[in-house]
Amino acid sequence: MTETVKGPAAYFPSIEKKYGRPIAEWKELIRSSSLTKHMELVSWLKTDHALGHGHANALVAHTLAENAGK
Fold first, then answer.
1. Source organism's superkingdom (predicted)?
2. What angle do CA 31, 6, 67 make, to 5 degrees?
């Protein structure tokens, strides 16, 4: 049985489909940014890369959580 993806990663298929970039590429952009605060990164993705708020928030939340676990 397939497990349902929950949390920010649930947005990943629609992000890839809508914006045409793999999630790994978005995460690398976030990690390479000089910005460090969650909402600064969300605003940057919305302004500079035309992402919707939910998609930007999901990418930032997931990426920052990964970084915190390292």
1. Bacteria
2. 20
